[in-house]
Write a structure and sequence with these properties.
Elements lengths: L1 E10 L5 E11 L4 E5 L6 H8 L7 E6 L2 E2 L9 H5 L2 H9 L5 H11 L8 H14 L3 H5 L2 E4 L11 H11 L5 H14 L15 H13 L5 E5 L7 H16 L3 E5 L3 H7 L2 E6 L2 E6 L1 H6 L4 H10 L1
Parallel strand pairs: 3-8, 3-9, 6-7, 7-8
Antiparallel strand pairs: 1-2, 1-4, 4-5, 9-10
Helix pairs in contact: 3-4, 7-8, 7-9, 9-10
């Protein structure tokens, strides 16, 4: 469903802050994937790259066979082969195989802007065939943030209705009915006309989840949804997430809640220093970790 292919993400004016260093993973339909790791490991950046809240420096993100990012020439052999760099290397060194030349170009980041007309045409073909508008893709991906990101100047029901109405997915009446149904589901129907500032943290986060569900997404992304909550409020949010998981929603969750990962996840990913250091089912992940850094991490948090 979601395909993350060789994602790099650098920050800073000259790209000197390297946060992701070649991350690849597949999220299948209906899977619940939990991402854990120490602070600064790149887990939230990876999640934000999935819906282009952060645009990768290199690499591609695909959703249901559609390309969300600009095409990365290093991931398409036909594009590399059409480049001046490849053609020049082929003339100068006829002995190496095609694979060896392409590997050298990728490894040394040799492609530059002026790679010729044929190169540009091949790259354009990839974009025309596969790339879609990110706003269309985001309609399929609900996002829940650490700090709720509700609009404080709008009531609860207005928060839920805003995106479906503005994007012309639903009429106002349809959006209102959908919103009230979601509020009933999470037990907050009586809060419909209240403003977010009057609610508890747990209530705000459940409403933020309902707001994402109002768009009828195919996948839900959660960025540390309980880390800003008081301990007594964490349970009500996790219970709602478990309910979504039991209904078959595709979910990618960045969290520090190890119990949730054990109980709900189909796979748990451990990130360290900008890479995926381990990816395994929860029983294997927690009971038989293979990566030394993961073993060290689990010893501290369990």
């Amino acid at each position: 469903m979601i395909s993350v292919r060789n994602i790099y993400k650098n920050f800073g004016k000259k790209g000197e802050i390297k946060v992701l260093a070649g991350v690849s993973c597949e999220i299948n339909k209906g899977e619940k994937v939990v991402i854990i790791g120490p602070s600064g490991s790149g887990k939230s950046t990876m999640l934000r790259c999935m819906n282009l809240l952060e645009e990768p420096t290199y690499g591609e993100v695909w959703l249901e066979g559609d390309l969300l990012t600009p095409a990365d020439p290093y991931l398409h052999y036909n594009v590399i082969e059409a480049s001046k760099t490849y053609q020049e290397m082929l003339i100068q060194r006829p002995q190496p195989t095609k694979e060896e030349l392409i590997c050298e170009i990728k490894k040394n980041d040799l492609l530059v802007k002026h790679e010729g007309k044929a190169y540009k045409q091949e790259l354009k073909k990839v974009e025309q065939q596969y790339r879609i508008d990110i706003n269309l893709a985001r309609q399929k991906m609900g996002m829940v943030f650490q700090h709720f990101n509700l609009f404080n100047n709008l009531t609860v029901i207005q928060n839920l209705m805003l995106a479906p109405v503005q994007l012309k997915i639903m009429s106002k009446e349809e959006a209102r009915q959908k919103a009230m149904g979601l509020l009933r589901r999470i037990g907050l129907e009586d809060k419909a006309d209240m403003y977010p500032a009057t609610l508890s943290g747990g209530q705000k986060q459940r409403i933020a989840i309902a707001r994402a569900l109002a768009m009828n997404p195919k996948v839900m992304l959660f960025d540390e949804p309980t880390s800003a909550l008081d301990p007594e409020m964490v349970g009500e949010v996790l219970d709602l997430m478990k309910e979504l998981a039991s209904e078959g929603m595709t979910m990618v969750v960045v969290t520090h809640e190890m119990g949730f990962a054990r109980e709900v996840a189909d796979r748990v990913i451990f990130m360290s220093d900008g890479i995926i250091a381990e990816d395994a089912p929860p029983e294997e992940f927690f009971n038989n970790p293979k990566n030394p850094r993961l073993k060290q991490f689990l010893d501290k948090v369990l």
